[in-house]
Amino acid sequence: MQSTLARPASLARSSATLSSSATHRGVGLAVTSPAPRLARRGANRGVVKVRAEASEKNLEVMRKFSEQYAKGSGTYFCMDKSVTAVVIQGLAEHKDTLGSPLCPCRHYDDKEAEVKSGFWNCPCVPMRERKECHCMLFLTEDNDFVGDEQTITIDEVVELSEGMM
């Protein structure tokens, strides 16, 4: 079974298409739609800028916070320190872009609204109330992936998170 979506008039001139296919309960589905076109008005119109890495300052702030919180809460980092490094990197990036260390392991429709609500700002409410860290940054001793360390160096954070974000 194959279906084609009609092209909106605004995109009718585009010859490029995006295709995807999937199966749902054994039925093959294919959808073809036009590739979006960006209007060019001004020098930066259509340009998407993405921060590749967190600032050194916030990376160090979040590293120190993570160590202090682990020690204060009696939790430990994951046995695979790359998990710890990537989460710290994500927290630092959110601190740079949003002003708060919003949990980097969740999807948000509106990050700014989530920051204002405070529920998922690290340490999140589930962590503060029940010691449940979705990111696996702060693990209790009964967790299968718990390591034995509550410290991580800035060099480890940089090295272990390189190429993973």
UniProtKB/TrEMBL annotation:
Q: Per its UniProt record, what InterPro entries does this chain match? A: FTR_bsu, FTR_bsu_sf
Write down the chemical reaction(s) this protein catalyses.
[thioredoxin]-disulfide + 2 reduced [2Fe-2S]-[ferredoxin] + 2 H(+) = [thioredoxin]-dithiol + 2 oxidized [2Fe-2S]-[ferredoxin]
Q: Which cofactor does it need?
A: [4Fe-4S] cluster
Q: Which domain of life is it from?
A: Eukaryota
Q: Does the keyword Oxidoreductase apply?
A: yes
Function summary: Catalytic subunit of the ferredoxin-thioredoxin reductase (FTR), which catalyzes the two-electron reduction of thioredoxins by the electrons provided by reduced ferredoxin.
Name the enzyme's class.
oxidoreductase
Q: Name one Pfam family in it.
A: FeThRed_B
UniProt entry keywords in alphabetical sequence: 4Fe-4S, Disulfide bond, Iron, Iron-sulfur, Metal-binding, Oxidoreductase
Q: What is its EC number?
A: 1.8.7.2
According to the UniProt entry, its GO molecular function terms are: 4 iron, 4 sulfur cluster binding; ferredoxin-thioredoxin reductase activity; metal ion binding; oxidoreductase activity, acting on iron-sulfur proteins as donors
Subunit structure of this entry?
Answer: Heterodimer of subunit A (variable subunit) and subunit B (catalytic subunit). Heterodimeric FTR forms a complex with ferredoxin and thioredoxin.
Q: Where are the transmembrane segments?
A: none
The question of whether Repeat is a record keyword is answered with no
Which Gene3D superfamilies does the record match to this protein?
Ferredoxin thioredoxin reductase catalytic beta subunit
Q: Where is the signal peptide?
A: none
The family classification in the record reads: Belongs to the ferredoxin thioredoxin reductase beta subunit family.
Q: What is this protein called?
A: Ferredoxin-thioredoxin reductase catalytic chain, chloroplastic
